[in-house]
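Need C-alpha cells for this chain, all 397 residues.
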Amino acid sequence: MSTRAPEAVPHATQLRYCVWEITLRCDLSCGHCGSRAGKARPDELSTEEALEVVRQLHEMGCREVTLIGGEAYLRPDWTTISRAVKDAGMLCTMTTGGRGITPERAREAADGGLDSVSVSMDGIGEVHDKQRGLKGSWESARQAIQNLRGVGLDVSVNTQINRLTFAQLDELLDLLIEWGCFAWQVQFTVPMGRAADNWEWLLQPYEILEAVPKVAQLKARGAEQGVRIWPGNNVGYFGPHETELRGDTFSRGHTPGCTAGLYTLGLEADGKVKGCPSLPSADYTGGNVREASIREIWEGTDPLQFARDQRDHTWGYCKTCYYSRDCRGGCTWTAHVFFGKPGNNPYCHHRALERQRAGLRERFQPVQKAPGVPFDYALFELVLDEVPGRPLPVARS
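Here are the C-alpha cells for all 397 residues:
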C-alpha cells in the first residue's frame, strides 16, 4: 500500500458520502452492470467487521451511507447494518433492482432505519427487461416502488441513459410523477463491466448534443411536479444547460469535476476502499479495511489523492479546453473506462458543441475487449468525422 503523510491532505477534503457495496450477490444479471454482480465475493466482511466500518465512517464525519450490491437485501444482516448506520446519526439509503422487494421486505427496510430507497428503472417494460437480463423485472421494480411507498418510505428512481432508454425518458418521468417518487437520478451508461460487452447500447459522444438538453428539459418539468432530477457526475460539463442541471447543487453553478476522495468514498464487500464506488478497482483501490483504518486509507494512499492534487491529468481535447482548470477532465470514471486513464471526457456537452461548430463530431470504436472481471473495462479509440452533410470549415490564409 503506497502511502503519503496525512498532512499532505488539503483541509478542504471532508468525507460526506459513502456508497457501500455490502455484497456482490445479485438476483439479476444486468447487461450494463459495472461490477458484473451475481455471486458473493469470496471473503465478504463479517457482521462485526461491517459494524466497525460504520463506527469509522461516523468518526470521520460521514453524513450519508448508501447500501448497494449486487443486491444489498441478499445479505442476511443488511438491516443490522442499516440500523447501525441510522443509529450512528448518518442518513442510510439503499439502491436496489427491486426484484425481491416484497411487502415483507419493504417493512424490514423501514424497520431497519432506511431513510429512502432508490429503485433502478432503465426504461419501461421490455426495454428495462432487456437490460436487466430477466423478463418481468420491470414489473417487479414497479411493484417494489409501491411496496416501499406503502410502508412510508421515500422512493426515488435511478436510470441509465443510453440508446435503449433515451426514447422513453419522458414517459418514464410521467410514471414517476404518478407514483409519487421524490427524485430521479440519471447518468450516461459507460463501458464498465458488462456494459463494455454491450457497448452498442451506449450513446456516441455526438449524441450528447441531444441527451443533455433532454435532461435539462426533464429537470424543469420534474421541478414543476415535485420530482427532483439529479444528474449523475458524467452528465453535462459546461454547456449552456450546466447551471440548470447543477445550479441547485453547487454554489458556483457548475460541476467541480471529480469528487472521488474529496467528499465521496466507495467500499466493496470484501473491504476494499476507493474514492468513488464506480472507479475500476484494479486502478483505484487505496487499501483494505482489514489492513488499515478507513481514515489512514483516506488520508494517506495515492489512489485516493488524484482528485486532490493540483497536477494536470488532462490530455487529448481536454488538454486544450479553457474549462480544464475547473472540471479537471470531467468524470474520472467515464474517461478511464473508455481509455484506460483519466483526463479526457468524451461525454462533455461543451466539447460536443465545439466540435459541432467546427463541422466535426466524435465517435468511439472498440480496440480491446474487457477481461470479464468485476469493475473491468474495455479500451476504445475516438474517431473524428465530418458532420454528415456539412463541409469542414476552410482555413483562411
